């Protein structure tokens, strides 16, 4: 089983309105509500791929009940630890032109006894797990080293970890030696403290990105896969460096594409795919996810058709 | 007991953000969640006034659980009928300048058997009730005559009704002969099919407003109390016409002021206050409600201090 840790799940509410007029009253023409959070998207993608998955998270309050109910309706195996705080909501308003405005609540304050209860369940589940994915932001109340501790517990049990988070949680988590960390360009920029996009265009500065991924490996990550949007994936591993690029830029919903990549990397890890194949599948699944309207979903036809178009090149180590 | 009917309650979620940038991601600095809907506000105000109140409504889904839980936490006596649909949310974004942008979901589809179950509970509760207040919009699935039927059932039980709604539900409800209907200027404009504000300024055209209230009485309402915002209340009753005006315009949160007025009118009706006193209390409570930050709440000190400032004039019948 692949354990997916989602410590800060959300109820994602989306309203469709023709036009947003600030200061006025709107009557949405469409209302959608679904369980969200990066870990939840990862778990949904793995479940769709046919992987044996177990979602482990913290849920609380009536919003937590809504999230747990929706997870059960999706048929997603889950073991959620109850907390006193109220699970967060995200609220997205999409106008007729497709422009999305987001309002993301921070999440509930999690107490130390609550996290200890979660950790106990998690350690029990590690026995027999093939991999663990730790994904998304930490809720308030948890130390920045929370993921690092979970990665260390996985290492003790011999279970490789894939980490997708940002800021100090990413730095401390990388130091715990996960098998793969998957930062995106914004996360690498935050770590580097400088802009990594080339000043004259859209393409990221490859040399600077490579330096940032090398830094994460120096800190302790066994491999780093940077997701660069339309420019694909750049992998720095103990076996070499690769660049995987989908055939053509896909327009659509980029939310959740990174989660699809993280899911594919964990799946490839568990299946023992070599790095070039692992990256081909991850880039294809990311592209298929962009084409799907909802984060955490993708069409298998899009996935299969994207697979053959991904170009994977091994690069010189730097 | 005063029965307050709230067929379309809501979970009101408010996010405070410094500035709204359309197309971007916001992290709210404040998140508030409370049970809402006009009937709920009326019930809260009556409960604060010390009146014996029973909230009767329809709740469904996990949002319905959230609303019912919050009602219980407020200590508000309630008898809610469960429905299959999901209780609606309203979502308000307030920026640093206090500008509010609202996104109001329509509410769940209510089936005929569900409404029949509600109606059965309601008819049972009418035995011994002193008054009934019917407030707010009807959820999808209910006929525009739903309030009219509930008013007729109250009349059969000898219970006077106060109606605060809009459109066809107001017209058909007025025809059922309620003791009081309480339209605001927008509702009277909708009924008249024309603008009632005077073209040269803020003050509503009193003659046109009086004609619109007369029309509601002709249709069947025993009394009409029009709430005109800062211009106070205009009452057309079988005992005469009155105008009640608070001493000074209060700036603040107008949402819920009409609900405070409806609550005060029902309270005055049950206490047997003469019309001038009933209107004095209603205007004062409306002003106190505007001064409070949250609909359904008010400070008793504001209410008492507003009372002495309300000017009530009896007017010539027209």
Q: How many helices of chain A in DSSP terms? A: 10
State the separation between the terminal residues of chain A, measured CA to CA: 36 Å
Largest interface: A-B, 33 and 33 residues
Describe the biggest sheet of chain A? Answer: 6 strands, parallel
Average pLDDT value of chain A?
Answer: 93
Sketch the topology of chain A as an H/E string, one letter per element: EEEEHEHEEEHEHEHEHHEEEHHHE
What share of residues are in beta strands of chain A? 15-25%
Uncertain regions spanning at least 5 consecutive residues of chain A: none
Strand order of the largest sheet of chain A: 6-5-1-9-10-11
Q: Quickly give the structural class of chain A.
A: alpha/beta
Shape of chain A: globular
Helicity level of chain A, as a percent range?
25-40%
Number of E-state strands of chain A: 15
Q: What Rg of chain A is obtained from the alpha carbons, in whole angstroms?
A: 19 Å
